[in-house]
Amino acid sequence: MEKAIPYKIYLEESELPKAWYNVKADMQVKPAPLLDPVTKKPITEEELSKVFCNELVKQELDETNAYIPIPEEILSFYKMYRPAPLVRAYCLEQKLKTPAKIYYKFEGNNTSGSHKLNSAIAQAYYAKKQGLKGVTTETGAGQWGTALSMACSYFGLDCKVFMVKVSYEQKPFRREVMRTYGASVTPSPSDKTEVGKKILSEHPGTSGSLGCAISEAVETASKLDGYRYVLGSVLNQVLLHQTIIGLETKTAMDKYGIKPDIIIGCAGGGSNLGGLISPFMGQKLRGEADYRFIAVEPESCPSLSRGKYVYDYCDTGRVCPLSKMYTLGSGFIPAPNHAGGLRYHGMSSTLSALYDQGYMEAVTVKQTEVFEAAEYFARIEGILPAPESSHAIKVAIDEAKKCIETGEEKTILFGLTGTGYFDMLAYEKFHDGNMVNYRPTDEEILNGLKNIPDVE
Ligand SMILES: *Cc1c(COP(=O)(O)O)cnc(C)c1O
C-alpha cells in the first residue's frame, strides 16, 4: 500500500547525505576543460590554485570520483538549517484543480534566504583549512554576498564583497546584513582596482554588472597575500556543493516511493538547477531511469535558449579562465530585470554540455508572468518567493495546467530557491503596473557575441 504523503517530508539526521555527488563522473562526454585566457591551453591545477583554494581546484577538475565526502565541519553547519523541507504543494494542486502532483524543495529557510549558503559554507571551510586570511567575491542581487558573509564569520575569515553598484544602491538592507556578519562591501565598479578604474573611465556613470564585479574581486584577491577569490555559481565546485539539494530530495522521495516525471529549476549560472537535478541526471545518464529536466531562464537573459555554445570569458575584465558554455557574450548587458540572480551571460559548463547532449530542455518566461506566478503562489502556499525562484514556479504551474487538459497525473518537482523579502521594490513595480517585459532582439544577441575569444 502507498504511504500517505505528508505535507512536508523531512529527513532524519541519520538520513542526511554524507557526500556530494559529482555528475561529471557519469557523463560519457565530459564538459570541455577550462582554458587559460592568455595561452588558450587547458588550465592546470597549479595555475588555477593561484586564484582558487587548493581543495576547491581539485573538486573543479575532478571527472572521476562520483562521490566526494562532505567534511564533518560542513555537515555540522548544514545541520543548523538542513534538511530543507520537501513540500507537497497540496493547496496549490487543489487551487489549480490539477491531477498533477506538485512538490517543491524549499531552500529559503536560512538568514541568507537562498540555497547559496550550501556552497558558501563549503568554500569558506576549505579557505580556512588552507590557512587563508580571507576571500573576495562579487555579488549581484546580494544573496551570494550574504551567504558568504555568514560562512566567513562562522570560520573567522575576512570577506570582501564587490557589489554591483545598482544593487548596492537599491538594496541597502542586503548590504547591512552583510556588514552585520562582518563583511566589507564595495560598490562596483570602484576606483580601488585597476579594472574598476578602467571600466569607470570607459563607461562613466555605469551602474555596474556582475562580470565587472567579478574582475574587481579577482584582481583584489590576486594582489593581497593570503586571499583567494570565491564564486557563488557557474563553477563545477559550486554545482557539486549544491547537490545536497538533489540528494536530500531524492532520499526523501525514495522513502515514499515517489518518482518525479518533470524536474524544473530556474537557471542563472546553473548551480541550484544542477544541484537539484544531478542525482536524477546520474540515473538518466546511467540508463536507470528517465526524467524531463527543464531549465527556466528570464526572457531578458536567455543563455541556454538563445546563446551560443562556445568558449567565452567568464568576466568582463577577462582575467578568469575561459569556459565552454552557452553564452550571450561577456559583453552582453541584459536589460534591467528583477531577478538579479539570473542575469549572468553564461551557464555552468556541465549544464551546458548536458543541454548540448540533449539531456535537458530550456524555456524562457516573461517577467510579468513570473510575478503573477509568484503572487499566486504566495497567496496559496504562504511562502513569499524570490523573483528568481518564481521562474520555476511559473513553469511548474504551466506544466500542472497541461495535466488538466490531458488528465495525466504527472509528478512535478521544482526548486524553490529562496525568499523575496529583499525584492519588495520589484513586487511594488508589479503591483503598480509599472513592470515591463524585455526580449533582446537577434541583433542585440549577435552584438553580445561579437567579442567571444577565438578558440578552436
Ligand atoms: C543566485 C540565485 C539563483 C540563481 O543562481 P543559480 O546559480 O543559477 O542557481 C536562483 N535563485 C536564488 C534565490 C538565488 O539567490
Describe the structure.
- The protein folds into 2 domains: 9-15 and 72-113 and 242-449, 3-Layer(aba) Sandwich (Rossmann fold), CATH 3.40.50.1100; 19-69 and 116-229, Rossmann fold (3-Layer(aba) Sandwich).
- Helices cover 42% and strands 16% of the residues.
- The chain has 18 helices and 15 strands.
- It has a 7-stranded mixed sheet with strand order 1-4-5-15-10-11-14, sandwiched between helices. It has a 4-stranded parallel sheet with strand order 8-7-6-9, sandwiched between helices. A two-stranded antiparallel sheet has the order 2-3.
- Strand 6 (134-139), helix 6 (143-155) and strand 7 (158-164) form a beta-alpha-beta unit.
- Helix 9 (194-202) packs antiparallel against helix 10 and helix 15 (367-381) packs across helix 16.
- It is globular, with a radius of gyration of 21 Å.
- Bound molecules: pyridoxal-5'-phosphate.
Terminal CA distance: 57 Å
Question: What value does the average pLDDT take?
Answer: 95
Instruction: Determine the number of helices (DSSP H or I, runs of at least 4 residues).
Output: 18
Structural class: alpha/beta
- Poorly predicted spans: none
Total domain modules: 2
The largest sheet has its strands arranged as 1-4-5-15-10-11-14
Query: What is the percent of helical residues?
Result: 40-55%
CATH class of the largest domain: Alpha Beta
How would the global form be characterised?
A: globular
**CATH fold field value of the largest domain:** Rossmann fold
User: Largest sheet, if any?
Assistant: 7 strands, mixed
Strand composition percent: 15-25%
Radius of gyration: 21 Å
Architecture of the largest domain, CATH level 2?
3-Layer(aba) Sandwich
Hetero groups bound?
pyridoxal-5'-phosphate
Total count of strands: 15
